[in-house]
Amino acid sequence: MAETWGWTMTPSLACVMGATLLGACVASQGCSGPEVPEGHERVEIGGRTFVLELAADEEKRTLGLGGRDHIPENGGMLFSFPDAQIRQFVMRDCLIPIDIIFLDSDGRIVSKHHMPVEEPRRADESAREYEMRLKRYSSRFNARYAIEIRGGLLEELDLQVGEQIRLDTQRLVEITR
User: Fold this and answer.
1) Using only C-alpha atoms, what is the Rg of the chain?
2) Can you tell me whether residue 60 is helix, strand or coil?
3) Distance between CA atoms of residues 7 and 119, nearest Å
């Protein structure tokens, strides 16, 4: 037993205090895991925690994950748009398969797709010709957010249309341009 602040700390009291502090830590945002790097967002998807790069401006949204040769196991990209509308994504300059989840303004899944790698732009092909031949993946309904993750994870996560993914939508609205 240890004497602390004029009272005796028994093993049972130490366990109760430890559990209380741990509960408070887990309930607060600051103890929900490692620090999230600037320009990223922690998002729980299908019971797994992902740290997603933010694409909240036109330049980042257009580039997306194009040119990447891998996506971390629990990584990907969260696209945030200034409004909700029917959206279409393509696999422009993408070197790896990607799964996409379209979300409405409240974070509900409206559509999801597996997007396999497309043939790269040919030397004799104009930018317009290349863009026109790429398959379009539609949100089908109005979407304000999209999440791209490593190809094949949609099957593992077993997500359903209508399912909610919690996003800090207020913060995303504030930072989206």
Assistant:
1) 21
2) helix
3) 72
pLDDT (tens digit per residue) in 126-171: 999 999 999 999 999 999 999 999 999 999 999 999 999 999 889 8
Q: What is the CATH number of the domain that holds 141?
A: 2.60.120.1140
User: Could you read off the pLDDT of 53-73 as tens digits, one per residue?
Assistant: 999 999 999 888 888 899 998
What residues contact 151, with CB distance under 8 A and at least 6 apart? Answer: 96, 97, 98, 99, 114, 115, 116
**173: number of Cβ within 10 Å:** 13
Number of domains in the chain: 2
The answer on 78 and 17 residing in a single domain is no
Cβ pair 175, 140 in contact under 8 A: no
Phi and psi at residue 50, to the nearest 5°: -115, 145
> What residue has token string 């998807």?
45
Q: Which residue has the tokens 């205090």?
A: 17
